[in-house]
User: Which sequence fits this backbone?
């Protein structure tokens, strides 16, 4: 199972978000040259949604640069993977904080009344894309009407809901997608789901052409991504620790995208030997070019959450009377984060 498959399953599984095994844990620590964490710091284990990659770069940058340590935190980054279920780890107390990949996951937790909330969103744009063959007549997603869409079952119950509501697409356009490029490459009219930092690069490398790429967020898809999730027991019991993590992570994302990423990339490569520097470089470039993080890393608003809920509930994904506001709190992102201590 690849990353897209695992995240899609989580997004689509409302009643089963807390089911399944946790899998092995792999924790990133500061580089050996750094001082050992102080025993007096607050321990925070942060579970990511997949193996170490550029999409986690800001957190690794904050770790490598000592942003967490300077704010009194002893942070471990717990790598995700196909056997790691972040909501389950949070609910069981195996980690203090976790990563939420998209807004469906967060609202699914709220629907099931799981006491976990989003406290920050570090991707203002969801990296979900649609890929098509290079065709000058394709100017926007609306131009894909009538074409076959290669989608996973989970995607049909997630972003396809928004596509139908916005563009009038029909379920008859959907074809089964099994995370294999061959059907897409064989049909010049086919449209395939993908992730901004992954499938376009793979198609270009393996097929020798640049696909037409449509970032859903650029046409109004309101989902957040790369959110920090916290259980209510931590939000209520130690809000200072939550704020410290959010502020340090914001500093890390600014440094990773605006400065030298080498320290973070070194930690990523150490955690994930299957990763390569060229993959990290192209992914980081796309994060910057497409402004996925935004000017205020971590920002969330009531308006964005309401817009997402209204689309999803209008398509019967959630009851219209559901209290979607219990899915998140703006307590930790209502103002720009302060500078790093000592700066």
Assistant:
């Amino acid at each position: 199972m690849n990353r897209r498959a695992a995240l899609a399953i989580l997004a689509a599984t409302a009643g089963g978000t807390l089911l399944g095994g946790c899998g092995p844990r792999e924790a990133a620590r500061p580089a050996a040259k750094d001082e050992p964490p102080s025993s007096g710091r607050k321990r925070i284990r942060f579970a990511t949604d997949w193996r170490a990659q550029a999409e986690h770069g800001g957190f690794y940058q904050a770790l490598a640069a000592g942003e967490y340590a300077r704010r009194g935190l002893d942070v471990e980054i717990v790598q995700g993977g196909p056997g790691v279920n972040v909501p389950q780890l949070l609910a069981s107390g195996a980690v203090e904080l976790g990563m939420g990949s998209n807004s469906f996951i967060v609202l699914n937790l709220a629907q099931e009344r799981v006491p976990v909330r989003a406290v920050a969103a570090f991707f203002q744009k969801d990296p979900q894309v649609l890929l098509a063959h290079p065709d000058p007549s394709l100017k926007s997603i609306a131009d894909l009407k009538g074409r076959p869409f290669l989608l996973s079952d989970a995607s049909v119950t997630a972003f396809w809901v928004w596509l139908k509501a916005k563009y009038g697409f029909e379920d008859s356009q959907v074809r089964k997608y099994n995370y294999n490029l061959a059907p897409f490459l064989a049909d010049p009219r086919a449209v395939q789901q993908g992730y901004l930092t992954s499938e376009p690069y793979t198609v270009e490398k393996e097929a020798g052409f640049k696909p037409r790429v449509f970032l859903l967020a650029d046409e109004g898809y309101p989902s957040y991504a790369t959110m920090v999730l916290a259980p209510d027991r931590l939000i209520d019991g130690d809000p200072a620790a939550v704020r410290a993590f959010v502020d340090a992570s914001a500093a890390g994302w600014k440094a990773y995208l605006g400065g030298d990423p080498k320290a973070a990339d070194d930690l990523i490569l150490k955690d994930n030997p299957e990763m390569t520097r060229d993959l990290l470089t192209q992914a980081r470039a796309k994060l910057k070019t497409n402004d996925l993080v935004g000017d205020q890393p971590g920002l969330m608003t009531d308006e964005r959450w309401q817009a997402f809920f209204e689309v999803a509930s209008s398509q019967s994904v959630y009851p219209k009377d559901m209290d979607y506001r219990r899915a998140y709190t703006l307590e930790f992102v209502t103002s720009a984060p302060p500078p790093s201590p000592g700066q």
The chain has two domains: 3-124+223-327, 128-219.
